[in-house]
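Sat 14:20. Reprocessing the chain from the morning session after the first attempt stalled halfway. Input below, unchanged.
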Amino acid sequence: MLPPGAQLLSNFISCSHASELLGAVDRGPWLTDLRRRVQHYGWRYDYRARRTAEHLYLGPLPVWLTEETRRLVKEGGFSSPPDQAIINEYLPGQGISAHVDCEPCFGPVIASLSLGGPCEMEFRSRDGGERCKALLSPRSLLILNGEARYDWTHAIPARKSDLVDGRRIPRHRRVSLTFRTVLRA
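Finished this time. Tokens:
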């Protein structure tokens, strides 16, 4: 089950394209100032200040992300190609705390493409009432729009396996490519 406004598209890309993307990611520069490794493209997000700013513009997205940004306009709910991508690497035992992507920074649609191993994402309504979970499979695309974007937090618990439908699924390296549109003042 997903929050209203969320959509999970399985097998959004082919296995061969996923391998190509992962190769391009691994050739990129990793930052290690968080508990996980990250890469920023288009715009750098300042985690401490929780914002983007003109001086954080890095240039256009790399060519190897062009196909994804075009598909996100056709199939992912974006009205124009996103201009910011953040790549997060999650090793077994790593996660990200519950959050809503910066509202004054980014537009109404957030999309995240999963590469590598699967993991479970947890959602919680901001009013504290409802909760739900979803397994993010390799090559799936999670789209957050509307209520799912603004009224629900999302998190990846820091653990080494997930219990899904009574089955223990060990975690492996997962890389997420999250696409957003920067709102400029």
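The longest strand covers residues 84-90.
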